[in-house]
Amino acid sequence: MAELTQNPKAPAKVAVDLIKTPWAVIVAILALVAVLDPGNWGEVVTFAGKALAHTGQYILFAVLLLSYLKATGAEVMVARAFEGRETRMIFLAAVFGGLAPFCSCEVIPFIAGLLALGAPLSAVMAFWLSSPLIDPPTLLITAGALGWPFAIGKAIAAVALGLFGGFAVRALMRGGAFAQPLREYKPAGCGCGPKQEDKPVWKFWQVPERRQRFRSEFIHNSLFLLKWLALAYVLEALLVSYVPADLIARVVGGDGVVPIVIASLVGMPAYLNSYVAPPLLAGLMEQGMSAGAAMSFMVAGAVSSIPAMAAVWSLVKPRVFATYLGLGITGAITAGILFQMI
Q1: What residues are paired with 182 via a beta bridge?
Q2: Sign of the torsion angle spanned by Cα atoms 233, 239, 241, 245
Q3: How far apart are CA 39 and CA 241, in angstroms?
Q4: For 21-45, what is each residue's pLDDT tens digit?
Q5: Per-residue pLDDT tens digits for 142-200
Q6: Interior angle at CA 174, CA 172 and CA 180, nearest 5
Q7: How many other CB atoms are found less than 10 A from the CB of residue 317?
Q8: What is the mean pLDDT of residues 322-327?
Q9: pTM of whole model > 0.90?
Q10: In the chain, which end has fewer C-beta atoms inside a 10 angstrom radius, N or C?
């Protein structure tokens, strides 16, 4: 209270921060619907509420799992993927990339440390390409919104993209490319990086500090997922209610390759985070978007996420960054085509 009194700008800043939250966007959207189309307001709210309730079971399990991984210190297992022969490193990095419970700012010092210690760029690239695509909460939320076949397909695409990128970079490096991939990096620190430990403590409840971390992670991630998924389902309700199905079907519908390519190109600049994308894609698929185009859109969007691209750009030289984006878009189109065929 004293701080607010001494700093008259603090209340204004709090108000601005509140306006920027997903909750404020949700309230604004529903208010506009109530004013512009009051007859449809109840249907929009009911659609979003039912969808959120359906996904609630997945949210709960995802939050419990992520909190457990954080409390036990399971991040240390990811580092083990970068030990041994290069081929083994690429395989393990692609797999662990989808399991790593890192926040976006944790990835930067983790990868920087690996590169500085001499970890091959091929294995790092495998991790970088697979990590934005899937993690335990994203897998469960995707399953809740789009079904398990799509969620499993996305997980397979994540590992496959990591392997593709890792071995492609290894081939390029053998040809003389990327001799010095790393920029000069000075870690700024964000206060949330993983502590360096020898091994995870699976029975975390026996350690008071770890019990506290579990509680804090559970609360933080529950609120985070709830606000973004609530916004996602409100947007999906608007999409289903107001966007003509034939328009979407003409652009990204059908079984050809062209809609898949278009979806990947649109997905990269129009990134939606991994918690918002599945519900919106569910709405687009109901309107006529093909399954292959949806997969391509999701893969391309995840690779081009702001945290993922910022991490790559801040650490490596432009040629490596361009290679990262090229591998990502190629993998997105390939994943869409294969998923469409299956």
Answers
A1: 316
A2: negative
A3: 12
A4: 888 989 999 999 999 999 999 999 9
A5: 888 889 999 999 999 999 999 999 999 999 988 888 877 776 544 444 444 444 556 78
A6: 75
A7: 14
A8: 90
A9: no
A10: N
Distance between CA atoms of residues 244 and 139, nearest Å: 29
Q: 303 near 133, Cβ under 8 Å?
A: yes
Rounded CA separation 181/202 (Å): 36
CB 299 within 8 A of CB 327: no
pLDDT, residue 56, reads 79
The amino acid occupying position 28 is A
- Give me the pLDDT at residue 11, please: 62
Q: Are 296 and 256 in contact (CB under 8 A)?
A: no
Cα distance between residue 225 and residue 56, in whole Å: 10
CA pair distance 45, 28, nearest whole angstrom? 13
φ, ψ for residue 182, nearest 5 deg = -90, 130
User: What residues are paired with 316 via a beta bridge?
Assistant: 182
Contacts 24+ apart (CB under 8 A), 217-222: 217/66, 217/67, 217/70, 217/71, 218/63, 218/64, 218/67, 221/62, 221/63, 221/66, 221/67, 221/137, 222/59, 222/63
Residue that has been written with the tokens 């939606």 in this structure: 272
As a whole number of angstroms, the longest Cα–Cα distance in the chain is 65
Asked if residues 41 and 32 have their Cβ atoms less than 8 Å apart, the reply is: no
Q: Among 87-101, 217-231, 253-267, 299-313, which is the least confidently predicted range?
A: 299-313
Name the one residue in this structure whose structure tokens are 């390029």: 172
What integer pLDDT is reported at residue 175 of this predicted model?
A: 84
| Structure tokens belonging to residue 206 | 């026996």
**Amino acid identity of 302?**
A
The answer to whether residues 229 and 142 touch, using CB atoms and an 8 Å cutoff, is no
Phi, psi of 109 (to 5 degrees): -65, -30
